[in-house]
Amino acid sequence: MSLKKRRRHEMKALDQIDMTPLLDLTFLLLIVFMISMPLMEYGTKIDPPEMNSNELPLDNVKSVSITSSGTIMLGSEAVTREQLVEKLKALKASEPKTQLLLRADGSRKYDDVISLMALIRSSGFADVTLVTRAEAK
């Protein structure tokens, strides 16, 4: 009979699970994540590159510019987006080693400059140099 009582006692122990340690762990993890997430967002150190770069190439270069009013210039000639693509494709076919310099006015939106760069790349020029002003020391 003592064997039956022992088995019943073991069964009673298994039918109840103490949830307190699990809840404590859950709340502890919740608190840790709530504290650490804002620190992860603002704790990333970014070291941007210097604006001073090597000298610009002087031979076999064409420049594409976008003015503060949004006018696109190829050299000193104002062109539309469609004309720019046509002229750049013709330039790439006739002089494949030509380097392009992209000059943008500082007041233009980032989206305008990137869309112009994508337009230039779609015409066949994979390497475009973005021209910036040197930092004042």
Characterize this entry briefly.
With 137 residues, the chain is α/β, with parallel strands linked by helices. It is built from 4 helices and 5 strands; from the N terminus they run ααβββαβαβ.
Tally of contiguous helical segments = 4
Strand content: 15-25%
**Count of the separate structural domains:** 2
CATH architecture of the largest domain: 2-Layer Sandwich
Helical content stands at 40-55%
Q: How is the CATH topology of the largest domain named?
A: Nucleotidyltransferase, domain 5
Mean pLDDT, rounded to whole units?
A: 76
- How do the strands line up in the largest sheet? 3-2-1-4-5
Query: What does the radius of gyration come to?
Result: 33 Å
> Which shape, going by the Cα principal axes?
rod-shaped
Order of helices and strands: HHEEEHEHE
What are the segments in which pLDDT stays under 50 over at least 5 consecutive residues?
42-50
Using the coordinates above, name the CATH class of the largest domain: Alpha Beta
Distance between the first and last residues' Cα: 95 Å
Total number of beta strands: 5
For the biggest sheet, the summary is:
5 strands, mixed
Task: Tell me the structural class.
Answer: alpha/beta
